[in-house]
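Attaching the record inline, Q. Sequence:
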Amino acid sequence: MSVRVVIADDQQLVRAGFRMILEAERDLEVVGEASDGRQALAVVREQQPDVVLMDIRMPEYDGIQATQWIAVQGGATRVLILTTFDLDQYVYDALCAGASGFLLKDVPADQLVAGVRMIAAGDALLAPSITRRLIAEFTSVAPVIPPGVDDLTPRELEVLQLIATGRSNQEIAATLVISETTVKTHVARVLMKIGVRNRVQAVVLAYEAGIVRPGRRPAQS
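Structure, as predicted:
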């Protein structure tokens, strides 16, 4: 079954380039394009894609506003932000809006393809340079423990720590010596309890709350 993708960018050449890259893959299908935020929302409503490649700076609604709308609808569509602007505020706003990942537009084609597949599978995706800067920003202030964290079981807390260090479901399963199916169940419960939509927001919360700190990785069982 193919991953259905919508490309939202105000530059026609960018959209054409992304389409060419994605449609070269048998498991990826571009089902729509949009040149501004308003059009992006219309295409998403019509096509219900698995992933939207979303530019941040667009006419009408910008990518952050469009991402917020998609998140509020509560559907299965996930947003992968692509931009030339490697700026902290844009990153933070996009993640808070509900984006599942963030890559710069100059990312190599193979990483773009891998990123779409990761987002479609429910994993988080942040460019390494962005991750480092976010962590530095979040850990520069006093930790704030949000509601729901105290309700996590010891195993669920372990899973959250591993999510925050960038581990995939497969890697978490190997670390905790449990099945991937069990990992998926734990992840779903963690997201529900801490009140976030996706793994990226869970990463942000874990660092803001001081559950994970730079240079510290959870010990393996």
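Confidence is low (pLDDT under 50) at residues 216-221. The domain at 3-136 is CATH 3.40.50.2300 (Rossmann fold).

More tomorrow.
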